[in-house]
Amino acid sequence: MPAPANRPLTLLISLLAVALIAGLIMTLRPDPTPPTPTPNPTTQSPPTLSALARPPEWPRLNLYQNTITRDDFRTLLTTVFTTGDAWRNFIEISETSARIQTGEPPPADIFTLHFAPPGLASPTPRQWKSAADLPPPPQGKPLDGLHIAIDPGHIGGEWAKMEERWFSVDGQPAVTEGDMTLLVAKLLRPQLEALGARISLVREKPKPVTPLRPESLIDQTTPPPGDDSPAALQKLAERLFYRTAEIRARADLVNLTLKPDLVLCLHFNAESWGDPNQPTLIDRSHLHLLLNGAYNNEEISLADQRFAMLEKLLQRTHDEEADLGTTVAEVFAKASGLPPFIYPPNDPNSLPVRENPYLWARNLLANRLYDCPVVFMEPYVMNSITDHARIQAGDYEGTREILGQPRISIFREYASALAEALAKHYSDNRR
Fold first, then answer.
1. Are residues 74 and 198 in the same domain?
2. Which H or E run contains 110?
3. Residue 10: is its pLDDT beyond 70?
4. Rounded to 5, what percent of the chain is helix, strand, coil?
5. How deeply is 297 buried, as exposed, middle or buried, from its count of CB atoms within 10 A (0-12, 13-18, 19+)?
6. Are residues 191 and 78 in the same domain?
7. What domain range includes position 108?
């Protein structure tokens, strides 16, 4: 028998062996309820973006630190740029700063914009020149030193039917808005150049600016519930092509290459015409101008649109657009005799500007994406009885009798009124 003094050591070795085997068994046995991993606070889901939008570059807003006071920021945000209260979910305003959600709350990264003390705002950085930035012009050249980009709305030509800007009455030549805006642009360009401006056309032919085509966009469409047919997907891809891809391509051209001081977006308005082969003509026409603003609750929740809104707000494009728009509306209404178009009260997609019945804020893709002031023209009604007759008469010098009245070409009236308005605005507002 072993000596009694060795028994504790033997017992200790046995206990350690049992513990080691038990531990090995527990290690090999799968845990039926594994612990939930601790979330990484730095990992964010990608923010929700508009169709074909790029993620916003939030550090760009650092250019505008201390360039706007709290009161000016809040006033512009609540009276010009938003139509609802959803901005409160993404922007927290204190006395000294705005804390801005860059993604979808919660959680999301925060960008902090610091306000300037009253009376101590730094100059606003921007690549475009306002009327007040321009020195006195040479005699007869009120637009000297100004670079204007003219954006003829839509595409026209063989694309007019696809983009739903085509109709024909009783076999008469078709009305195609994209071709009409291009004609006005080419009439307007030499008039503005004669006034001293440098002019760039965003497009010069009835061709798309974007290299994309509907077929390449089908994979990026979401079919409506219950209809994922090839025809439905094709229709959605076509709309994504001409409503979104085309405008984004024009914005890249404007912002990265042309870099103008002002963009004039030329359009003709219309009301519902029904069957484009048997359209309804109406007995009214009107005029309005659209400036950037009036972001609704759904739009403000999209990161790219929230960023674009803030950049527009901080660049102070609104005041320049509203000043110029006021003059354009006055001159154009006098030249055309058109009454204002009035949006319905409490419309979530529009806001009146300066109580001027012709000026309205709306969040359109073009006037949101172009990095400078934009005046978006919506004169005439293509399917009004009078305007349709004038469109059918085509372009001509002098006057012709249209429905019993002598009328100048509707295209020349459009171009000349715009040229006169710009000459007046810049003559009156250069320093």
1. no
2. strand 110-114
3. no
4. 40, 15, 40
5. middle
6. no
7. 58-114
Return the closest-CA partner of residue 337 out of 376, 378, 377, 380: 380
Mean of the per-residue pLDDT values of the chain: 90
* 224 vs 424, higher pLDDT: 424
Question: Nearest to residue 151, comparing CAs of 212, 200, 206?
Answer: 200
Q: What counts of helices (H) and strands (E) characterise the chain? A: 12, 14
If you write DSSP's letter for every residue of 225-290 in order, what string do you get? TT---HHHHHHHHHHIIIIIIHHHHHHHIIIIII--SEEEEE--B-----STTSPPPBS---EEEE
Residue 307 lies in a domain: yes
Least confidently predicted of 2-11, 172-181, 257-266: 2-11
H/E run at residue 176? strand 175-176
Residue 73 has what pLDDT?
Answer: 98
Total-model pTM:
0.88
Residue 30 lies in a domain: no
Confidence of residue 227 (pLDDT cuts 50, 70, 90): confident
Q: What is the CATH number of the domain that holds 354?
A: 3.40.630.40
pLDDT, tens digit (0-9, with 9 covering 90-100), for 260-283:
999 999 999 999 999 999 999 999
> For the chain, what is the domain count?
2
The torsion angles phi and psi of 169, rounded to 5 degrees, stand at -105, 120
* Inside any domain, residue 346: yes
- Both 215 and 344 in a single domain? yes
Q: Are residues 165 and 71 in the same domain?
A: no
Three-point CA angle 337, 339, 342, nearest 5°: 160
List, for residues 236-251, the tens digit of each pLDDT value: 999 999 999 999 999 9
Query: Residue 89 falls within a domain, yes or no?
Result: yes
Q: Based on the fold, state whether residues 295 and 198 are members of the same structural domain.
A: yes
SS3 per residue for 322-369:
HHHHHHHHHHHHHHHCCCECCCCCCCCCCEEECCEEEEEEECCHHHHH
